[in-house]
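User: Hi! I'm working on a homework problem where we have to compare a predicted structure to a textbook description. Could you give me the structure for the chain below?
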Amino acid sequence: MAQTNLTNAKKAKNDEFYTQYADIEREMNAYLDYDKDVFRDKTILLPCDDPEWSNFARYFSQNFQSFGLKKLISTSYAIDSKPDGLVLQPRDEEIRHLKYDSSKARTHGRVFTLTRDMTGDDRINFQDLEWEYLEGDGDFRSAEVTALRDEADIIITNPPFSLFREFLSWIFAADKRFVIIGNMNAITYKEVFPLIKDNKIWLGNGFAAGNAYFASPTTREYAVGVADASTGLVKFRNVTWFTNLDHGRRHEPLALMTEADNIKFSKRKEIKGVGYQKYDNYDAIEVPFTDAIPSDYPGIMGVPISFLNKYNPDQFEIVGSDAYDGSPPIKRYPNKEKVVDGVRMKSITGAMGCVIRQSSFGSGTYFDVGYPVQAVYKRIFIRHRGAA
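Assistant: Happy to help. Predicted structure tokens:
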């Protein structure tokens, strides 16, 4: 349900999900705990973030002095560029401002900057933000926002889910540091996975218990759950933080049992007393749970994409993925037929990644490739660091 709703939201361009202040604070604390000066003397750009709606600008402006920031820049989209069906009006704060221009209020984005104390209270905070209308609608791909990207040291935001690939490419075109939110399945995108494999991007500290709650001005049609009916917070289980800033959890070794001990003692019924199955089409064993990775297996292991939440690059090496062109299977099936609960599906064969050979067809989804195989969900291939 979570993935279906997030996909529907992307297709409908209903990308107006506002990150909670506590989630931003929790994530940034992970980088600050690892390096207290991570933001010192840095210019931070918050694209797609209207300070009147977004907690990113509020968080960094309130911590401007304690972090030692050099400059904070935040840009907003024009009201008329918001998703279809979302009716917004200029906020009262904008209308009352001396710079308010009714001819630009709906069609132009705004840029907010913070560099100094403007109110004379000897503090630099949210009240000191200055703003101007942009020449365009505030799209991050515009020349003027791209120029702000080039000026920045670190880019932090929750970009539109539907534009994640393009947004990440936009960041890497300028070789910037970043912390952004995206769909967990972005790990398998052809534009993203090679960067993860080469340790150019990794997962951040993450949302508490894996639950991401967002405020949204759109309807609740895409909500997986409403945390509080009075606030309309919507819940997603399948989003996470992507970054190239280091944090301590990334260097915590994963405690593991040996292969023999997993087979004898594992709490996972798929492993205990059973062992590890080999894929029929990849030279690797299936490890369905991160905590079931055997500590002494010298070969390639297929693990869930959620493994990246525990990935320590000093302990493991990522060598491929069944969704990555650089990891071709050792066996291909020229003919296959999808079989669901014993019923053969004539029109759609379905997608295949790693598959495990079975002795017979049973309940569930199988493929007939001349014999029964079952596919597992997307897998990342890893091996222990130093293993040949």
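For your comparison, note the following. The mean pLDDT is 87. DSSP finds nine helices and 20 strands in the chain. Good luck with the assignment!
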